[in-house]
Amino acid sequence: MKKKAVIIGHHATDKGAWSKYLNKSEWDFFSLMTRDLEEKVGKVFFHNPRIPGYRERMQDTAKIIDIYNPDLIFALHFNAFNGLANGCEAFYFHTNETGKSYAQNFCREINLKMAINNRGAKPMKDIDQRGYYEVYYPKATTLLLEPFFGDNASDCDRFDSRQFIQILSEL
Description:
Blueprint lengths: L3 E5 L9 E2 L4 E2 H6 L2 H7 L2 E4 L7 H15 L3 E5 L11 E6 L3 H18 L3 E7 L7 H5 L4 E6 L6 H6 L2 H10 L1
Parallel strand pairs: 1-4, 1-5, 5-8, 6-7
Antiparallel strand pairs: 2-3, 6-8
Helix pairs in contact: 4-7
């Protein structure tokens, strides 16, 4: 059995995208799942908002998670764009074929179990790409997950937290 870790994306003072349909930010939405994630998936980690700078904060989180020594890490986010864009994406470090496989499986399962459009597994290969260092710094295979668009009413209606946690537990 794989040892897994979960990162709640963003932090308490920079909560990420806002969803008017959920009436929550990314950070608030996934933070509410902490207990269930820890029971069914793996240890949950939060970024330290007191560490200035995105890159430095990602390094700090990776160092802490590396001590835990997981086999697989999920960084949880949701997308937002224009209210029309929809679907699930999973990002992995571009040279990690294992990450690519997990990312493909994740998107496929979200599509099958929640009927959310599969936008696919996508490699992170540009240091200027949003989220790059979140998948780059940890030693373990890390996926940055965007299972739905928080500004799309249909995606929000279809997303099921219990199914999501189940999918993560089975990867």
